[in-house]
Design a protein that fits this description.
This protein is α/β, with parallel strands linked by helices and 350 residues long. It is built from 13 helices and 13 strands. The protein is 41% helix and 16% strand. Helix 1 packs across helix 3 (33-46), helix 8 (163-176) crosses helix 9 (192-207) and helix 10 (222-235) crosses helix 11.
Length: 350
């Protein structure tokens, strides 16, 4: 186009009226997010910037959209806390919306957030499995950080828990306290978390020239943990430790062991994963477990968004260490003055 593009040219390319194009470029909420996206893309394509309209449509709002598929808040709420701590220090705020794991609802939420002029998006999963990246047309060029569930596109920025490291540390710790007949009770084999934790465990077994007595896959449930623990003791009478890949499994395993007269941790030590209070701290005995460090994951995601807005985008996968919390299921409760107050002894290994 030899002449300077006009608002009418933008409207024509976006297939909307001139009035609608004006509203879209002025960032009003009187047009749909999809229409606004089409108009902004048309303006960029034509190089339209008269009266600085395009600048106004893409100006910073100080808002970051946080979209989660976590319907019960186990992951989303601590991640939101971490993100808000970092964003608040830079005069930003987060808007939280739940997609309930439905792609169509996720897209609708992104449209709504884009219409509100958010500066970036943090997409939070709850499975650890990789997910399809968002369509660039949908995100309108906004920086996107994928948290907990990584994007399948290695060029994207993803932040995940170090499940491989947790698995390796779990077996190293059990070996360090003298356990030699160690089994692993896992969830479904098609979960990346299960694969990674088993992979880490296997690396430590190989490093110290040991091998697990068994690795069992099934469900993320107490029922499976209880059933698997009974089966393991029946098949391997010398069993002295179980690495459970979730706290639900671990609490079930503990119940199964106690029911057949096994003492925890004297006879069999147990390690879980997730540090979910209702299972880990509310179990008897309390569970040694790994914390997914979700708050730190949220802080990191927020910092990466701010870096991208400052022209320093991150790419690839970043892992966040899962600290180990030692409780009664691997070592006897220590006698301390705190016991008189009813507080449970805990020790964190970084």
């Amino acid at each position: 186009m030899s002449r300077k593009p006009t608002l009418a040219d933008v409207a024509r390319l976006a297939n909307v009226s001139v009035a609608t194009a004006s509203k879209a470029l002025n960032n009003t909420d009187r047009v749909s997010a999809s229409t606004q996206r089409d108009v902004i893309e048309a303006a960029k394509q034509l190089g339209y910037s008269k009266s600085n309209k395009l600048h106004h449509a893409t100006r910073r709002s100080g808002l970051i959209g946080l979209i989660t598929s976590d319907y019960n808040g186990r992951f989303a709420l601590p991640l939101l806390t971490g993100a808000e701590n970092t964003l608040g220090a830079s005069n930003h705020a987060a808007l939280l919306m739940s997609s309930h794991g439905r792609p169509a609802l996720e897209k609708s939420h992104i449209d709504r957030l884009a219409a509100h002029g958010v500066d970036g998006l943090i997409v939070v999963g709850d499975t650890t499995n990789s997910r399809p990246p968002l369509d660039p047309r949908t995100t309108m060029g906004l920086p996107v950080i994928y948290a907990y569930d990584p994007s399948r596109d290695p060029r994207d920025c993803s932040i995940i828990c170090d499940n491989i490291g947790a698995g390796a540390q779990a077996i190293e710790y059990l070996l360090s306290i003298g356990r030699r007949y160690i089994a692993i009770i896992a969830g479904p084999e098609d979960f990346q978390a299960a694969k990674d934790r088993v992979l880490g465990a296997q690396r430590t077994f190989i490093l110290y020239d040991f091998q697990p007595v068994a690795i069992l896959f099934d469900a993320w449930s107490e029922e499976w943990g209880e059933r698997a623990a009974r089966l393991l003791v029946e098949r391997y009478p010398h069993l002295d430790a179980i690495y459970c890949l979730s706290d639900e499994i671990a609490r079930g395993a503990a119940r199964g062991l106690l029911a057949i007269g096994k003492r925890i941790p004297r006879d069999v030590a147990i390690i879980g994963h997730d540090n979910w209070f209702v299972f880990a701290s509310n179990a008897h005995p309390t569970l040694t477990t790994f914390d997914n460090n979700i708050t730190m994951l949220g802080k990191t995601a927020a910092q990466f968004i701010l870096d991208a807005l400052a022209g320093r985008p991150h790419h690839g996968v970043t892992t966040i260490e899962c600290p180990m919390i030692v409780r009664e299921s691997t070592e006897a409760k220590r006698r301390t003055a705190l016991e008189s107050t009813g507080r449970v002894y805990e020790r964190q290994i970084s």
